[in-house]
Amino acid sequence: MKLGAAAAFTALAVSFAPVEVDAQERVRWRMHSGYGTNLAVLGRVPGYIAEQVGRMSGGKFDIKVFEPGALVGANAYYDPVGQGAFEMAYGTPGYHQGRNSVYNLFSSWPFGPGVGPYLAWYKYGGGLELARELYAKDNIMFFMCGMIPPETSGWFREPIESLDQLRGLKMRFFGMGALVMQKFGVSTQLLAAGDIYPALELGTIDATEFSMPAIDRSLGFYQIAKYNYFPGWHQQATTNEILINMDAWNSLPDEYKAMFETACHANIAIEFADGENLQYQAMLDNEKDGVTNMTWSPEVLEALEAAWNEVNAEEIAKNPEYARVWESWSKFYEGYKVWGERGYLK
To answer: Is the pLDDT of residue 10 over 80?
Structure first.
């Protein structure tokens, strides 16, 4: 399997040149998107980045966006970027959890931070530097290029009155939350966005989570699963990444680097605001279509958090890289709490 994938990447990367520049400093790059560009909130990001970079460069820095599957599968972009099959890709670090569980900490984790403290850790608490150190080992330049608000924590066909009902369910689940669900007997798998609805429809999976209500609605889950659970205990904030081949990045003119970074920074605010704006209407529309918006009881959330603490301790014990990043976050958050627990209304 690995040899076949490597051969495909090699074929895709024939005669790769990190940068194509003419006398007018024209640069043409390809960006794989891990999400369909018609997807609410998440899908608009690649087009926004490409448009802003194009405007700032007077059309000289041209980024062409490719839909999932056009170059590689939605989540399968890590190795192709590092090997130079294409210059850049958009997705989320948690898609690389099969490579190393530490990537989840750069994406989201159960009972984790909201956008405020998470963004502060990334920008000023050492998170960005740790992520870049990790990705650089595979010839990749990492950019944290967006964050979304909390997700919903699952779409189910029947109401969940006890966690015992989870045992035996087949469910699409993301990141470290999947390990928590496994503690309750759930069989989890990580499906790309476009593969979830068919799996629900065919009964390949019994339940799913993916993202926020507006995003999930655009994928049609409400047509099959009529019980949508809140809060999103597994993802209170989720990071979007743009990965760039290191050779391509290093050979990019400084002014174009600045343009990309400016567009990336702007997208963080725009994406968060877009996410916050769209959710209430999606929830109301779901209710009109027969969905019940459910809230987990305090007892259920307490049990889920206890399971998360077990999972986290296990990962710390067996993965030194995970332990190092968790230590960085913990040190930052211990200080942040002096402000965070006093500055905001509960």
So the answer is: no
